[in-house]
Amino acid sequence: MKFFIFIIFFHICIFTYSQIRIYPDRKIDFLVRDVLLENKESIIVKNIKISKQKNMISLFESENIEIFKKGILLSTGNVFAVKGPNDKKDISTRNYLKGDLELNKIVNSETKDAVVLEFDFVPMSDSISFNYFFASEEYPEYVGSNLNDVFAFIITNEELGIKKNLAILPNGEPITINTINKNKNSSFFIENPIFHESFIKSKSNEVYELSRFCQFDGFTKILTAGSKVVPNSTYHIKIAIADVGDYLLDSAVFLIGNSFKNVYKKNKKTNPLKN
Question: What is the Cα–Cα distance from 190 to 70, expressed in whole angstroms?
Answer without folding.
Answer: 20
